[in-house]
Design a protein that fits this description.
single chain; Rossmann fold; seven-stranded mixed sheet; three-stranded antiparallel sheet; 10 strands; globular
């Protein structure tokens, strides 16, 4: 996901191109990975995945994956981080599971988890925009999970990559934070519904206080850049890349660990979303 305190862009940051942004974010994710792994291991990460068939995916997305038909399919996850969800996809019945992620360190952790759990998956370190062509038309299902879409300065080109990965009639499932929720400040517990960020913006949000949303440790962090897409940008990105939308849903539950304090409140707002689309 993202850190807490945004900074204004100035000087050279305004001149950064897409590769500059992705490289900066790669550095930041590499920095935080050891902190994430330490916190997860203290909570029994390896013991959990040593259980046969273990999945970290919640009931809602598990039902959707089974309804779409994950069993026996070649599945990919973009922005797989340390591989927990990719391995979960394999445990849910995928014939094969491949995870792509920007972070070198997260991919190392994913490979370690695959080896220690005995669940065979392929993990590839790559800028998502630069996934090698030999993976094109290789997958029947592509999964996009929480905190993924905010990292892409060009969301339409991102969905072009997703479309390229899919075989004809392949399915993409997006289960991510709702764009509306990203207007809120997750740390403002006194006035949790107060709008802090603009829904429409032409510039990325820049954060400099780290990415340790798991262990909540403080450290000297490199800047990260978020490009929170609007709901219409997400839908249009799919449509522009031959991905026909089959189903859209919005939910009041938090699946990001950012807005758990809003769960079960009487005033319900969209905190998460589900989109299912198919390649023509």
């Amino acid at each position: 996901m993202r850190s807490k305190v945004p900074c204004s862009l100035k000087g050279d940051e305004l001149k950064m191109n897409r590769k500059d942004y992705t490289e900066a974010n790669r550095k930041a994710w590499n920095e935080v990975n050891s902190k994430h792994q330490k916190a997860k291991q203290e909570r029994g990460k390896f013991e959990k995945f040593n259980q046969e068939g273990y999945s970290t995916l919640d009931e809602r997305i598990t039902e959707v994956l089974h309804a779409v038909g994950i069993k026996g399919k070649a599945v990919a996850q973009v922005c797989c981080n340390d591989g927990e969800e990719t391995i979960s996809l394999k445990n849910l019945g995928a014939k094969s599971a491949t995870g792509f992620d920007l972070s070198d360190e997260a991919i190392k952790s994913a490979k370690e988890l695959s080896q220690r759990s005995g669940v065979s998956c392929e993990f590839v370190q790559t800028d998502i925009y630069e996934i090698p062509e030999h993976y094109h038309s290789s997958f029947e299902l592509v999964y996009i999970s929480v905190g993924s879409l905010m990292w892409f300065p060009d969301i339409s080109t991102f969905f072009k990559v997703v479309s390229n990965l899919l075989k004809i009639d392949g399915t993409v499932i997006i289960y991510d934070m709702h764009p509306f929720s990203l207007m809120l400040d997750e740390n403002n517990k006194q006035h949790p519904y107060e709008i802090k960020y603009s829904y429409f913006t032409d510039e990325p949000k820049v954060f400099t206080d780290g990415l340790d949303y798991i262990g909540s440790s403080e450290y000297e962090a490199s800047p990260i850049y978020n490009f929170d897409p609007t709901f219409s940008q997400i839908l249009n990105g799919l449509i522009q890349n031959r991905l026909t939308i089959d189903h859209v849903d919005e939910f009041p539950h938090d699946m990001s660990a950012m807005f758990e304090h809003l769960d079960n409140k009487e005033l319900k707002i969209p905190l998460s979303m589900l989109i299912v689309a198919k390649k023509n």
